[in-house]
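Exercise 7.
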Amino acid sequence: MARTSDIDASTPKHLQDQYAITGIGETTYARGSGRTTRALACWAISNAIKDAGMTPGDIDGMLSYSGNDSTPSPVIAGDLGIRPNFYMDVNGGGSSTEALIGIATGVIEAGMCNAVVIFRSMNGYSEVRIGGTGKRSAVPVTGDALHERAYGWQSAGQRFSFSFMRHMYDYGTTPEQVAHVKVAHSKHASNNPKAYYKKRFTVEDVVSSRMICKPLHLLDCCVETDNATAIIITRADRAKDSPHRAPLIRAVVGRCCKPRPEVHLQHGPISTVAGHYAKDILWKNAGVGPEDIDLTGSYDAFTFTAMLQLEDYGFCKKGEGGDYVSNGTIELGGKRPNNTAGGHLCEGYTHGMNMVIENVRQLRDEVDDSCPVGPDGKKQHTHDYSEGGCRAVKDPELTCNMGWATPGVGSALVMRRGD
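Solution. The predicted structure, written as tokens, is:
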């Protein structure tokens, strides 16, 4: 039997560019949606179906990241007039989006269905908040919580802080350096009409905000929102009928793990995350390297999660993540912008779906910023990234999304501009 380290990552190369993201949809990002997750899901999926130029009858597969107050796929399918040949609702944190995209390509490849919609619907502020508060905070202590809450690990920040603190200890990374992630993403969000937070923050704003869990200040943490998001996957040849240039899927890594992923700090180095292992699969299968990527979507549940993944996927050397995120590289106009819609820190929290949606828009050259609309009905992007301006990256060819569940579990996706 082959060990994990012996996997021939070149095997799936025949799947490069054979699948595409045909449609994308989302709701508003709000605090207090006033809607059920059932209604939110229908709203986002309807938008994705319309965006793809499809009808509900064209969709025969459904996948979702289900958890907290989510509504199952069969209920949503019935509301929309979709008859699934395949569905699956899974749980698994912020690595779900890229992993579900991989599953979607697999079930289509296996002949189980033809077009899959992936969705996430959550009232993540008004109903079930991840830190255990909100209207539905009285949940039983079961599963992993039996081994975590006894030690005070109530929230994600408390569980992940070991990796953040160790990186600071090992490499001299400072909170001020990592605060630049918030600074960059807030600049991007200021040019995003649908972002929940549009204010541009400074490093001083971040490090002077109240401490939540060392080394995380309030502004190092994502914004909790109510929202739903959706993505439609089809074969690339079918995507040619789409009204948009559909980005092609080059490679996917789904929930790659560190040793002992259930309690990540049991296996060192603690400051190394799952991307260290995932990158060996991702870049070989994609046929490109980090140096070829034009923009990234690194999961920013916290400023530190974005930095650690950019480092371990090879966008900079280990230990140089603090400099990478603070030297202008990840800002619009920099060498490799990250989370150009504002990400989880500013646009809204979606478990990674909005980051994939944003990169799809970038590759389609259809970013919804404040640039003027020309006579052809398309945005005339100025590439002026001052406040209230453009957020389109000029002529991007390749993007990379990096999903984070915990320091020990991660997923990734490389897309390229469609033909």
